[in-house]
Amino acid sequence: MSLQFLTEAESAAVDAALLTTPEKFLTRLTLSTGKLLVYIARDLGTSVEELDNQQIIAWFEADSKRKQLEGIEASVLKWDAKNLTDLPKE
């Protein structure tokens, strides 16, 4: 399942806002994070308010593992990390 973090309309609304470039970046990040937290909560069968740090970390680990074992299309987060040097070794 792929999650769309920011629609074109949402991105355009941020662009049109009277904000500095760093403020626009933080706004996009906040909007995207809100959507991802809702997705994680639903995936774990809980509410956003009940999510704790360990559940979020575990969810990211599970998504990363799914990507490593089944490929990028099996993961929710679609970034490609094959050029990163800090990937954990198992």
Tell me what you see in this structure:
The protein is mainly alpha-helical and 90 residues long. It has one domain (8-74). 57% of the residues lie in helices and 0% in strands. It contains 3 helices and no strands. The protein has helices at 8-16, 21-44, 53-70. It is globular, with a radius of gyration of 15 Å. The two termini are 26 Å apart.
Secondary structure blueprint with pairings:
Elements: H1 8-16, H2 21-44, H3 53-70
What is the chain-wise order of helices and strands? HHH
Query: In percent, how helical is the residue content?
Result: 55-70%
Low-pLDDT runs? none
Got a strand count?
A: 0
Descriptors:
90 residues, mainly alpha, globular
Question: In brief, what are we looking at here?
Answer:
57% of the residues lie in helices and 0% in strands. The two termini are 26 Å apart. The protein is mainly alpha-helical and 90 residues long.
